[in-house]
Amino acid sequence: MSNKINPDCKLIYMAVPTRLVNGQESMEKQMDVITKEGNAPLHPFQAYPYERYEGGPVGKVKTWEFCCRLIDIADEVYLFGIGHGTLNEVAYAIKKDKPIKLLMDVWDPDWKKHYATRTPKIYILDILL
After folding, report:
1. pLDDT single digits (tens) 17-58
2. What is the three-class DSSP state of 42?
3. In this structure, what is the dihedral angle of CA atoms 115, 116, 117, 121, given to the nearest 10 degrees?
4. What CATH number should be reported for the domain holding residue 38?
């Protein structure tokens, strides 16, 4: 990692489904994508550890609300994979006119299967693809 200061650095919210987080190493690899671009990664599972938030006493719905607050301060949103939460996050980002970058093909090879099985059907990606 470079210690050079990037005056154009953006804060990137990372929409990552729970099933794609397999410990600290996977989060580091995901964050490296953004850091290598010269931007600052904002990984929701770093900010809100699963066992204390989504999978703990805070619960899924309240954690999604907190994630939307992070999207408010982010410059852009990168979608790493498909899940109920990430689709809610993308819908919120669209409502807030945040630029969205799609990375599912690289990080979530089964994304089409997960997208097709969402109930109720959410066709947010149809807008973006």
Report:
1. 988 887 677 889 999 999 999 999 999 988 888 888 888 888
2. strand
3. 90
4. 3.40.50
Domain count, the chain: 1
Q: What is the pTM of this model?
A: 0.85
Q: How far apart are CA 54 and CA 5, in angstroms?
A: 34
Domain span including residue 53: 11-128
Q: Classify residue 23 by its DSSP letter.
A: S
Radius of gyration, alpha carbons of the chain: 14
C-alpha dihedral, 35 to 72 to 129 to 8, nearest 10°:
-40
Q: Which CA distances in Å does 97 have to 72, 94, 113, 123?
A: 10, 5, 27, 17
Place of tokens 């006493």: 57
Closest C-alpha to 43, from 65, 62, 71, 82: 71
